[in-house]
Amino acid sequence: MSSDASAPELLVDSDDTVLSLRFSNPSRANALTPSMLDALVNALERRAPKARVVLLGGAGERHFSAGLDLSEATPEDLSQTVLDGERLLGRAAGAIEDCPRPVVAVVNGSAFGGALELAMACDWRVASPEAKLGMPAARIGVVYAADGLRRFVRELGPSRTRRLFLTGRPLSGREALEIGLVDQLAADGDAWEAAGAAGADVAGAAPLAVAGTRASVRALTEGSREEGPRVAERWRARACGSEAFREGLAACRDKRAPDCRER
Questions:
Q1: What class, spelled out in words, does domain 9-203 have in CATH?
Q2: Residue 51's closest CA among 253, 200, 231, 246?
Q3: FRET pair for 154, CA 20 to 30 Å: which of 3, 83, 165, 183?
């Protein structure tokens, strides 16, 4: 971890079940630098498999992230900086989607632009009621990358995606909940606590069932009409033949908590 508290970085904290990742760039509303995005990918690939769930949010109480950090770009380099940043954002969002563990976005403050895309790549989003979420792409002349748009269309549908992108108007956490941009509201200041409670619930489930459910939902929503059900059925057959399934049934019969170690 950097010794300079104002330096942009990804703060990493973990225990036996939860990996917490926080964007930290205090002077720039937690805006995302290339090194922060690289660190995010590295943490998801190397450290996430050792946990049961990942929480992704912003350091402090005011910001998830303002999006790409463009503060160091010169006027001549600004366009290329944005294009390079979009590539890094796409790589990071893909790493979130491909993470072997569930990733919960903790929208504990403002989330704009590419940072909101990262939140949309997560399994679900917990937000503060007073958080501000917005996508100003069209206002700055950008047609958003296809993979990024797909993430919004998948969660919101075409009409709400158009409204979010074309108006550029920020939504409060409550408004975001109404259209499906976030999935759960927490009391102000309690977003991390609420996400941690959800993470504890996930940690208490059988890892194979968690992985299979996530893969099946993705296949059913993104795969073909034929392939989606086949993927889901393969995971179901694997789970039903597992030791974890037998342990779960035995625990239910015996009225005790199941032993949910990796099986």
A1: alpha beta
A2: 200
A3: 83
